[in-house]
Amino acid sequence: MSAGVGVDIVGLSRTYGSVRALDGLSLHLAPGELVALLGPSGCGKTTALRILAGLEEPTAGRIAVAGKDITAVPPNRRDMGMVFQAYSLFPHLTVLENVAFGLKLRGKAKAARSSRALEMLDLVGLAAHRDKFATELSGGEQQRVALARALAVEPQVLLLDEPLSALDAKVRVQLREEIRRVQTEVGTTTLFVTHDQEEALAVADRVGVMNRGRLEQIAGPVQLYAAPATPFVAEFVGLSNRIPARVIDGTVRVLGSRVPVLRGSVRGVGTALVRPEAVQLTATPEGEAVVADVAFLGPVSRVGVRLVGGAHVVAQMSGARARRLVPGTRVDVRVDPAPVLVVSNQVVPN
Fold first, then answer.
1. Is-same-fold flag (7-231; 239-343)?
2. Where is the ABC transporter domain (predicted)?
């Protein structure tokens, strides 16, 4: 296992004419850590990765790897491995030759590069396919070959640019688990760029949420989801009900329950952002709310509820519990006592 190296991104900015694609990004990756940059299209996450790789120059800021400033170092001397959305395998080379290609460019002897390539193929479970060509592999297998090729040269840093977005849903889940396992085993410091929140939460040690070129919050997956620092994070990572509320003495009354508020919440009148799974429904003839719709999603269901006054909230619960609720069922509505973020009543920007 590699010891990994630290990566420091300090005040990184990138402008294209009047457009600021990256706006003062600062980020530290600990040795061996896997950090995901998450955000919508155009938020700056891929620009940050390309600058880290040396494929673009920053307008301002600097990058250091293992304490060495590499801001002006060309990409071929940065000692980084990359895996893209497109597999980018050579169709005329075998799987083994594809994985060994970077080692060949570095002048490694044939026996040494074949041994290392086979070791990496074994790591991703494809040693038996070493003599096949890329066209004979599935999309998931091709991306595993691309991962093996990137790791074969023992890079200081691994960069993954939307590596799973071209795959179907089931293969994406399998491959993200494979990436996490392999990265943990080799210990390479890794930056993973994605627009898929579930993917980021599942694979990363920490997740940084980006919006309009800026880093809104970076935290572990659990903290990011349970304690969003900004309205954008609360709305982008998972679903949130927007419920009118008034903050009094650090607590807020929401749907009949008084709960604490998160740091960063507004004072006075605002809007509480409440996760659907925090909304609890109890069927009762005396209930003041009415089930409006039920969406079955397999292991869970989302239940839309119409409150007194016409407001609408969504609850998420197990499929078994939700099956007892049908449109028209009267319910009592409460929320879990977990802290919530209360924001101003303005629209959250996307």
1. no
2. 7-237
Predicted TM-score of the model (pTM): 0.89
CB 293 within 8 A of CB 315: no
Read off the amino acid at residue 77. Answer: R
CB 274 within 8 A of CB 340: yes
**Interatomic CA distance for residues 235 and 238, integer angstroms:** 7
Query: What are the tokens at 284?
Result: 């009762």
Residue from 43, 54, 25 nearest 218 by CA: 25
Separation of alpha carbons 299 and 124, rounded Å:
30
The C-alpha angle 106, 107, 109, rounded to 5 degrees, equals: 130
Residue 349 gets which letter from DSSP?
A: P
Helices (H), 268-324: 319-322
Domain over 7-231 is classified CATH 3.40.50.150: no
Pair 313, 334: CB distance under 8 Å: no
Q: How far apart are CA 189 and CA 169, in angstroms?
A: 26
102-140 pLDDT, tens per residue? 999 899 999 999 999 999 999 999 999 999 999 999 999
Distance CA 217, CA 12 (A): 16
pLDDT digits (tens, 9 = 90+) for 65-81: 999 999 999 999 999 99
Lookup: tokens for 317? 């619960």
Q: What 3-state DSSP class applies to 30?
A: coil
Rounded Cα distance between 177 and 113, Å, is 27
In order of 32, 190, 270, 317, 320, the CA distances from 300 in angstroms are 35, 33, 30, 6, 8
Fold observed for domain 239-343? OB fold (Dihydrolipoamide Acetyltransferase, E2P) (2.40.50)
Q: Report d(CA 202, CA 177) in Å as an integer.
A: 8
Other CB atoms within a 10 A radius of the CB of residue 162 amount to: 19
Residue 205: enclosing H or E segment and its boundaries?
none
- Token pair in block for residue 20: 């600021």
For residue 269, what are the β-bridge partners?
246
